[in-house]
Amino acid sequence: MSTTTITQAQEFGFHPGDIIQEWLWDDDVDEGLRRKIEDLTGEDLVDEDYDSAVDGAIIWWRDGDDEDALADTIMDASELVDEGAPFWIITPKPGREGSTNAATLQSAAKTAGMNAATPLTVSEDWNGVRLRAFGKGAERADRMERAERDDMDLR
Length: 155
Known about the structure:
Layout: H1 3-10, E1 20-23, H2 31-41, E2 56-60, H3 67-78, E3 87-92, H4 102-111, E4 114-116, E5 120-121, E6 126-133, H5 136-154
Parallel strand pairs: 1-2, 2-3
Antiparallel strand pairs: 3-6, 4-6, 5-6
Helix pairs in contact: 1-2, 3-4
């Protein structure tokens, strides 16, 4: 595997040994990008029927699919992804068939309780948008603060 291939796949935040779940694969996806991820992780991508914990997820999304369906897919996919693990929506670039509106992605992500980052070019025809759950850091800080207060009360 070339250094370029490793670097491009690492930009997703995936690592050797990671199990990555792939959602909404179709014959239009970028097979080269899929191979780069598989080469880096050393594992085949698993499909949406996989039912064990995963180290990351990618969702191939195209315009014309229902925004509510995207929010539902995000929620379904996030159930198996480890907290803080890389979670990506991959869409055709603007001007390509199936390109989607950024507002649609933002709205679906928000409905699913996630923030959508700025799109990044991930291949010649596809952009990737990383999602992160709302408040993960805040929730963790609140838990730690409560634990500290509880610990002090026990003294």
